[in-house]
Amino acid sequence: MSQVFRVLLVAAAAVLPFSVAAAKPAPAPAPVPTLAHNLDAANEAKLAAVIERFHKETGGQIKLVRLHKGDKPATLNLLGRYQTEDVFSQPKAFVPLYSMMSKAGVALSVQLSEVLKPSVTDGRGRLVALPVLYSTPVMFYNKLAFRKAGLDPEQPPKTWFEMQGYLDKLQAVGYDCPYASSWPTWVHIDNVSAVSGVPAIDAKTGLKFNGLPQVKHVAMMATWSKAHYFRQYGNADEASARFKEGECAIITTDSREYADFQDARGVELGVAPMPYHDDVYGGRRPTLVGGSSLWVGAGKSAAEYKQAAKFVNYLLSPEIQVELVRNHGGLPLTEAARLASLSRLLQDGRQALEAAYASLRGPGSGPVAQVSRVDDTRLITDEELAAVWADRKPAKAALDTAVMRGNSLLKAQPALKKLQPF
Asked: Pairing with 209, which of 66, 88, 111, 281 sits 20 to 30 Å away (CA)?
């Protein structure tokens, strides 16, 4: 064999292994976990900014996607108050938060505020979801409107009875909408019932909001509607847009909406606890909490859960907790975050947070189950309330019908009566 041929063989042997290795396909990139939501454009942008910070500060990855009815759950799912029935009706499509965190090897060390625990913990106190953007109903009002009506802007009404006099004076100075309310079932059934000490849901999680206190309240609202003291604009947050434009002088809605009212036109924002009826036995009770919570979809890869757990841990960091409170208006998840938020919020935000916690104070504790938690029972109740306020039905008949229709629906779908799905 010639010297030249030997050299060629040695060169070929040296190159061959590298050529074979180079021919192997590159490993597939790790799947990126998704976070599904249905926030409006403004709040979506705020959440996207948090995710961008997560990417830059931790090197982690989360992809933000829109949440559509009927979609298979994403890795993380930000579900609003009226969407959690999806979890209850198909619990096998989700896994508890504590389980995901444990399997991912990421500690879930959070001392959740007591007021937030009942709706997202199981019988052993373990977190099954994260109450990211929870709130409670409060009363926002326009201090400029109060001054125009000769009312003290630092002394908002405390009771529903007292409020009627305020509405009369606001109407007299030209306000076509003295008072409006977003989320009518959440505010006027779930929370008026809770504050009055007569829960809208009984011990067996059946609907029971057709008693005397609820009938009296809804009938009072009907008289206000006839007098044009109260205006109903829809069953969601349509009234909030009217308040933000300065059309309505007072609104009852979620405490978190102070974040949306920061650029309200012609409004000097005032906020106070939701009014109560002072003629019910036992005095004023606490309002309820509810809102958007983070649920974990089942069937994802270990790599996806690892990244998702890292993101959950990031959300619980003190800096991000304060940012979520300031930009989205939710209740702080921990007492430490609450204190930090109060020290760093702007004045309106601080007042809203203080009013929210004042609303949550009182003897006893509110019930866990809520009429508005199940979207179909909420829609039924909204429909019957609208009939009363439009003078098409008396209050007692409408509430009796709402309870009967709602209980028939829950009987047909017993999974929706559970207080937590796992």
From this structure: 88
